[in-house]
Amino acid sequence: MLMTIIGIYTLYVLVFIYVSVMQIGYINQAKRKPAVLLSASEFLKAGSYAVAKEKMKIVNAFVDYFVFIAWIGFGILFLEKTMFFQNDALMSIAVVLGFILINSLIALPFSYYEKFVLDEKFGFNKSTKALYIKDTLIAFLLTIVIGSLVIWGIHLIMSNFSLWWLWSFVFIFGIVILINMLFPTFRALFFDKLTPLENEELSGEIKTLMDKTGFVSSGVFISDASKRDARLNAYFGGLGKTKRVVLFDTLIQKLSTKELLAVLGHELGHYAHGDIYKNIAMVGVMLFAMLGIFGNLPESLYLELGLRESPYLVMILLMLFMPVLGFIMMPLMGIVSRHNEYAADKMGSELGGASGSIELANALKKLVTENKSFPLSHPLFIFFHYTHPPVLERLKVLGVDVGASDKSALEGTCQAVL
Question: What ranges do the domains of the chain cover?
Fold first, then answer.
């Protein structure tokens, strides 16, 4: 059984790397062809950024693989022997938190490299090292506090119920819903500063737009995201009465009022179609499947690991395999999500009136330009990773002639992969 688990994880890593290699080869050829949506220099720059990100992900995948083997081979046993707690609940909290924090420390160099090397080179990073350290420390503290409570709750369930995996699903799924409700508040408390939108004319137009779909919000806020990053974004956070409309200040600066309203119309389309609840439901299906599998592991696995079956061991195995199940589920979730995006685009363009399609298309073009998003991808990469349709396809559906039908980048061998 242990070799089967290692084999599954190995296959996952190989497929993940293969998809990234194909994407790198595709972009390296495509970026040398006539530019699409972007200027020639920006097209080349966006391609180089996309390739650099994929190379980093490949290195990260190799590191994750060796870390996985280390945890399975001796790491979990080492943690168990290192922690000395008579109380079983405290033992579970200590071991699982130790696992999470060690993994976080291993991932830290990649996070730093992405922020202060890659993003710095391509003009995205606006954060300082002091702010980065502050954010990291806050994230660690929140992990310790919230993580301890969650681990304690799962430990109690596993220790007192024979169908612990089912009740653990109910407990964790409840936390997922709670996180969705509290996310805007937590983000405002610990990371971004949110201020109410002061532009009364824009606020009124947003209110009119929301009224058309029955969206009731606790307010429209501006996030000072530009102190960390130059990318454009917006989100509707929360559930029920906690819903907030949050616009990144970078979005306000770069988009015209009509383009901004088109983007918000798209987001309201997600609300009107219940996409938030659909996404939560899909997460629930993934959680249910994962807990169902790991709630019925054979005893032989624990014998092969040289460990006794315990709540903390099951929790660690769950977290080790979460990326695998996520990768397997992603194509299905991606298909559903891309369908939802097309429907939201349609509603966003309709809410914008006669020029709605044009304004949304212009906004999408600006998002591609400002976020340096390379507009072309290998079909395999789209299949495994895209939650949104390729921007060229979205523009075509909106009636915009993008003049990009050249598939020749897929032909021949991939060059300069690494």
Answer: 2-194+268-410
